[in-house]
């Protein structure tokens, strides 16, 4: 059964069309989804509608693509807007929503928009699950438990500016990692850097005025060493399966505070051997990465949107570093025995272009990371395609990219979430 088209009226009420079928986009190329790639929409996914952007659909009666700008609902004639889905964490979208962007009035908020339809009586999307970790399911975060925990933990560090910053992240921005800090469990964040040496068009803490608003504010101070070491040593000692991570959405690039990070890692490791210390980074300063590895860092996750330097630079707009520096950081980490992850920001039609797959294979061969994160890139699809000047033809499918990598690099792991030291490698790994 081919999934039916979803569309919305101006009030956001969502309807399914009686005979038109859903389409998706691979880059800017419209295509029908492969029935084998469709999955029931995961429980924690969300639906959006795009006012003023009518959907494209497949008309099986006339066997052609049509644009649905108006529809009759009962006695009403309504304007049609496209519907998309934001997938639950751990799932990778395969197609973008198929819609006309001419009527879009502003840059879309930074979510990863996926094609979605109705198959039978259930929403479905072209997607696959890359990782599952119950610790990050939204139903694990109950604010009725959080608020008393915030009051308790914040009271233990009354003069700590970083704890106050995380309090805002947990209660206003609903950052799951910040909530974990106050709930004394799992992975907690350690933001340190108000500055950045990249100008990512998808930055979630700083956006130009003509773009969409950033969903959260960036930290505006550099924590003192004690503000880092005391509360986060406590977290490693008290929390179950603890991870503490530099490099959060509420900061710039942590490597710009490399000296502080090295001192903090060394100081924490003098106090405790428990838990995992992780760094999320753009990998711009390989010498600093090397010093951090020697200081006691356990894992590193280096973000890229592409293994092609041209597309990387169009997205990151690096200042004072190059894509080669990023590659050197990945290589340096893996050679020093640090669990090395590439945070790969995937986008249908660009990530799965044959040229991108070739470039990614070369990157893996040269740098030998242990794990590739497949993360849906949160960005306005229309803006990204324009900025990248790529994705004009359909890609081979991100699910096929994963299969090709698994075949070519049997030891390479895939995932979505950071891991504890105990889970770095599968059982029986030497």
Highlighted features:
430 residues; alpha/beta; TIM Barrel; seven-stranded antiparallel β-sheet; globular
Describe the structure in brief.
It is built from eleven helices and 23 strands. By secondary structure, it is of the alpha/beta class.
SSE layout:
Elements: E1 4-8, E2 14-22, E3 24-26, E4 29-31, E5 38-40, E6 46-50, E7 56-59, E8 64-67, E9 70-73, E10 76-79, E11 81-86, E12 91-93, E13 96-97, E14 113-114, E15 117-119, E16 122-129, H1 143-156, H2 161-171, H3 176-183, E17 187-189, H4 225-238, E18 243-246, H5 258-271, E19 276-281, H6 286-295, E20 299-304, H7 309-316, H8 323-335, E21 339-346, H9 354-367, E22 371-376, H10 381-388, H11 398-408, E23 413-415
Parallel strand pairs: 17-18, 18-19, 19-20, 20-21, 21-22, 22-23
Antiparallel strand pairs: 1-2, 1-11, 2-7, 3-4, 3-13, 5-16, 6-11, 7-8, 9-10, 11-14, 12-16, 15-16
Helix pairs in contact: 1-2, 2-3, 4-5, 5-6, 6-8
What would you say this structure looks like, in words?
By secondary structure, the protein is α/β, with parallel strands linked by helices. The chain has 2 domains: 4-129, no CATH class; 134-423, Aldolase class I (TIM Barrel, Alpha-Beta Barrel), CATH 3.20.20.70. 29% of the residues lie in helices and 24% in strands. It has 11 helices and 23 strands. The strands form 5 sheets. Strands 1, 2, 6, 7, 8, 11 and 14 form a 7-stranded antiparallel β-sheet that branches. Strands 17-18-19-20-21-22-23 form a 7-stranded parallel β-sheet. Strands 5, 12, 15 and 16 form a 4-stranded antiparallel β-sheet that branches. Strand 21 (339-346), helix 9 (354-367) and strand 22 form a beta-alpha-beta unit. Helix 4 (225-238) crosses helix 5, helix 5 (258-271) runs parallel beside helix 6 (286-295) and helix 6 (286-295) packs parallel to helix 8. The longest helix is centred in the middle third of the chain and has 14 residues, at 143-156. The radius of gyration is 22 Å and the shape is globular. The N and C termini lie far apart (47 Å). The mean pLDDT is 95.
């Amino acid at each position: 059964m081919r999934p039916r088209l979803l569309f919305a009226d101006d009030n956001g009420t969502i309807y399914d069309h009686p005979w038109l079928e859903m389409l998706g986009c691979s880059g800017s190329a419209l295509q029908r989804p492969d029935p084998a790639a469709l999955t029931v929409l995961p429980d924690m996914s969300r639906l959006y509608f795009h006012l003023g952007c009518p959907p494209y659909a497949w008309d099986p009666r006339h066997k052609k693509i049509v644009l649905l700008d108006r529809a009759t609902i009962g006695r009403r004639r309504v304007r049609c807007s496209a519907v998309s889905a934001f997938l639950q964490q751990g799932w990778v979208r395969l197609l973008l929503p198929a819609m006309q962007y001419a009527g879009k009035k502003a840059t879309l908020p930074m979510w990863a928009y996926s094609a979605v339809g109705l198959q039978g009586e259930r929403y479905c999307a072209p997607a696959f699950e890359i990782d599952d970790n119950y610790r990050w399911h939204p139903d694990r975060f109950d604010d009725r438990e959080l608020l008393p925990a915030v009051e308790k933990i914040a009271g233990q560090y009354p003069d700590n500016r970083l704890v106050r910053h995380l309090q805002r992240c947990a209660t206003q921005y609903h950052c799951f990692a910040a909530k974990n800090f106050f709930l004394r469990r799992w992975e907690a964040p350690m933001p340190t850097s108000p500055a950045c040496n990249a100008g990512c068009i998808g930055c979630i803490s700083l956006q130009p005025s003509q773009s969409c608003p950033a969903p959260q504010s960036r930290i505006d101070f550099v924590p003192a060493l004690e503000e880092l070491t005391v509360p986060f040593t406590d977290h490693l000692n008290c929390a179950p399966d603890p991870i503490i991570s530099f490099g959060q959405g509420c900061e710039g690039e942590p490597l710009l505070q490399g000296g502080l990070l090295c001192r903090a890692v060394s100081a924490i490791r003098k106090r405790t051997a428990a838990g995992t210390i992780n760094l999320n980074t753009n990998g711009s300063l390989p010498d600093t990465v090397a010093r951090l590895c020697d200081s006691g860092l356990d894992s590193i996750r280096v973000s890229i949107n592409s293994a092609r330097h041209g597309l990387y630079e169009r997205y990151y707009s690096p200042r004072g570093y190059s894509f080669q520096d990023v590659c050197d950081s990945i290589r340096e980490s893996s050679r020093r025995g640090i669990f090395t992850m590439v945070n790969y920001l995937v986008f249908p039609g660009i990530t799965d272009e044959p040229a991108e797959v070739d470039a990614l294979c070369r990157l893996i061969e040269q740098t030998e990371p242990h794990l590739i994160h497949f993360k849906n890139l949160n960005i306005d699809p229309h803006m990204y395609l324009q900025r990248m000047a790529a994705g004009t033809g359909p890609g081979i499918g991100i699910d096929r990219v994963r299969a090709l990598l698994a075949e070519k690099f049997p030891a390479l792991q895939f995932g979505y979430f950071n891991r504890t030291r105990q889970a770095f490698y599968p059982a029986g790994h030497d």
